[in-house]
Design brief:
Number of strands: 0
Structural class: mainly alpha
Shape: elongated
Number of helices: 9
Order of helices and strands: HHHHHHHHH
Largest sheet: none
Distance between the termini: 48 Å
Oligomer: single chain
Radius of gyration: 21 Å
Amino acid sequence: MYNFFIKIGCSTQELFTTFGRLTIMTFKSFIAIRKAPNYTTQIIEQFIYIGRESLPIVLLTSTFIGLAMGVQIGIQMTGFTPHWMAGGLVLRSILIDLGPIILGLILAGRVSAGIAAELGTMKVTEQIDALRSFAIDPIEYLITPRLIAAMFAVPTLLVFANLVGILAGYVSTYLSIDLSWAAFVKGMRYFFYIKDVETSFIKSFLFGIVIVIFGSFYGLNSLRGAKGVGKATTLAVVWASVVILILDYLVSAVLFFI
């Protein structure tokens, strides 16, 4: 029993220590944004990596999410439910939840893992220490440009993801219940709320921050060796995904009552 409480105490201490270090790193990353003009090249490179290079997988995933959503909604359309309502259901489902969540999880698997692996390798090969020896702040040089790029790249990707998902949803409803484009648009116009668009963008903006912060944190705190880098990459993806799902609920809950 004594050892049990010791383990709980050590785990709690480690949890709060990790949270404190993560908070400090996040705070320093945002403070360093004031020096963004000095790192324009790095910001553009990271925008291309996070945004343009992620676009194909995002579009592919959004297409099949939209197709699946159209089929599921089409199945629910009974003789007592106007078929044109399917357009509004597809629109709201993708805008509020599916678009941001799927995008966030895809980027957590691709971008957050990539950042953790890259920074972890730099940590293991002592490149981080080399930067410090030249009086270059690793947070300012490595994390902040990625953070700024993600703030713009992820909402931009969301526009394409939502558009493709909605169009795929129309194709799916057309094939499943023979819904015309005019009826689909009627449903979208009937159920459209500007608040849904705002919610979608707020989520994507926060998800972009989470993806970069967790990838950078676990990368910079990677242990020695290939095993340490692999563990850091896994932790970055897992925790980024968990926090994305938690934030999705919190943002939806808060904005619902506003």
